[in-house]
Amino acid sequence: MLLNLNIKNYALIDELGLEFSEGLNIFTGETGAGKSIIIESLGLILGERASADVVRKGAPRCSITAEFDTANLSGAEKYLASLGFENEGQLIIRREIDPAGKSRAFINDRPSSAETLKNLGEFLVDVHGQHEHQALFKTRLQLNLLDSFAENEQLLSEIESKYQDYRKLLALKDARQMSEQERERFIELYTFQLKEIEAARLSEGEEEKIEQALPRLKNADKLMSTSEQAFGLLYSSEGSAIENLGKAVKLLENINSSVEDLAQTSENMNKAYYLLEECSRELEAFKDGLRADPEELNRLLERQSLIAKLKKKYGQSVAEIIAYREKISAELEALSRHEQDKLELDSKLSKSLGLLESKCALLSAERGKAAKKLSSGVEKELSDLGMKKASFKIKISKRGEPSSNGWDDIEFLFSANPGEEIKPLKDIASGGEISRVMLAIKTVLAKADSIPVMVFDEIDSGIGGPMGQTIGRKLSQLSKHHQVLCITHLPQIAAFAKIHMSVSKQTVKNITKTSVVRLSAEDSVEEISRMLSGHEITPAARKHAAELIENALK
Fold first, then answer.
1. What is the pLDDT of residue 192?
2. Average pLDDT of the chain?
3. What is the pTM of this model?
4. Is residue 290 part of a domain?
5. pLDDT at residue 392 above 80?
6. Residue 103 CA to chain centroid, in angstroms?
7. Which candidate, 455, 451, 453, places its Cα nearest to that of 36?
């Protein structure tokens, strides 16, 4: 769900903050007030191309920030995770454009690209208008929606599994169809690499142990000399620290019985004496354990050099080298199995393909049944929306080979009037037709479609008041399953608003600004009255506006 949209220095907008709600959010206002600017700014959040023209004159840059609640959007969450973005159900997208037209994008304050925003936007918002981001025009998403409508999830999962089985057998066959000369070349290469790695007898964590041991071996002489001196000063030499401290302890013991003031001092000195003894033992053990070992030093240096050499060839760490060894070992084994009976493999491949094609045929049949049902439902909705003779069909064609989602290509087709050629949905020219077709599809698919936010611009193009009431009711039904944002000029649609926002334009000292106000229930009546009667609002208009809202609530 879109929680809020903040726009700064965009065209006629100085600074604007909009908060949205679940359900139907309606924008109204006079022509030219700037309603389309809100949709255009949302388009930039969805990765649309930026232009210097959008930057308000005199401003250093314009910025648009949108906040989404993605707690229940698994598709968006998975996509963000695949890119390494941290997201805990709250997504903030920001887009900035400077006067030169240079654009920057951010996801949760981390730099991103417009292409990433566009891909992410497919999970978040569906915009329907003259120049829109329309997910339903993409045949891939049309196929996904048809499968969701048909509840084909289980069948698709089975096909995915069988397709992967089939691909593994194909890969094995391809490996065996390799020329003998090429196969021998790979066997020779992998054998050499495997011997080189295995001869090194690497173990995980070895490199770290070498790096830890080398400083001690390299500096053994210096360490022995220094620790010997320290041990002498502390313990073994005449006049050592512990010898002198022992004498001081005995002197204090002699007077401690008669002078209570030094009791604590005497106790602390005794503690210090025992602590120095402990330090002496540790230091002695350290120096006695030291030894110059040129052979061990050379061995570790050679080992370090060998690991560095192998890292240049096979991986950035010992762990990666070991992993590469396992990989080429498996590859070598596969290459060495080429004598296996080819007929046996062909038999397995044929059986696997048969199982896959059987599932694909079943899926195609389910899609065919669902396509008829969906087409019929959309045509009924179109009839309710004033397009009584419109045709909506779903074309299903078979691809050459099965894939992980079956063997069908589908495309939504539409014709507005009898006798007109039925064409792909993406080729519809009229903005009004587009919006009504989309509304019809979305009404039927409401429960199957996972895109949470739907935006309708110019949905009332070319229609009158009675049909506006029908469209308003459809939008209201749709808003039970999606958050809907709608720009409209029709009071009959505006009456269905859960959140009603008024867009207006003011000019002060030759500076024009667009502003948006969230209307109260009373103000909504006034705005709908204005839409009915113009600037001079009559009592009859107010009464009519109240009746429209009352009917919408029913």
1. 93
2. 84
3. 0.59
4. yes
5. yes
6. 20
7. 455
Angle between helices 139-150 and 153-176 (to 10 degrees): 130
396: pLDDT strictly greater than 90: yes
What 8-state DSSP symbol labels residue 321? H
> CA 200, CA 195: separation in Å to the nearest integer?
9
Residue 3, helix vs strand vs coil: strand
Q: Which residue has the tokens 């991986």?
A: 315
For residue 64, pLDDT over 90 is answered with: yes
The answer to whether position 58 is within a domain reads no
Please classify residue 369 by burial: count the beta carbons closer than 10 Å to its beta carbon, then call 0-12 exposed, 13-18 middle and 19+ buried. exposed
Q: How far apart are CA 179 and CA 49, in angstroms?
A: 49
Helix (H) or strand (E) holding 289: helix 263-289
Tallying the residues shown for the chain, one arrives at 554
For residues 200 and 387, the answer to whether their CB atoms sit within 8 Å is no
Query: Beta strand 423-424 with 483-487: parallel, antiparallel or unpaired?
Result: unpaired
Residues 418 and 372: beta-carbon distance below 8 Å: no
Quote the CA–CA distance of 306 and 430 in Å, as a whole number. 70
Which H or E element spans position 313? helix 294-314
CA angle (163, 164, 170) in 5-degree steps: 90
Reported as a pLDDT band with limits 50, 70 and 90, residue 206 is confident
Question: pLDDT-derived band of residue 164, with 50, 70 and 90 as boundaries?
Answer: very high
Query: Which one is predicted more confidently, 112 or 513?
Result: 112
CA distance 202 to 185: 26
As a whole number of angstroms, the distance between CA 310 and CA 286 comes to 35
2 forms beta bridges with: 68
Ramachandran class of 239: left when φ > 0, alpha when ψ lies in -120 to 50, beta otherwise: left
Tally of domains within the chain? 1
Q: What is the secondary structure of 119-162 as a DSSP string?
A: HHHTTTEEEESTT---GGGSHHHHHHHHHHHHT-HHHHHHHHHH
Kindly report the number of other CB atoms within 10 A of residue 34's CB atom.
Answer: 23
Instruction: Give the 3-state secondary structure of residue 401.
Output: strand
- Write out the residue range of the structural domain in which residue 198 sits: 179-337
What do you get for the CA distance between the two ends of the chain, in Å? 26
**Residue 230: which pLDDT band, with cuts at 50, 70 and 90?**
confident
Judge whether 190 lies within some domain: yes
- Across 357-384, average pLDDT: 93
State mean pLDDT over 60-78: 87
Has residue 143 been placed in a domain? no
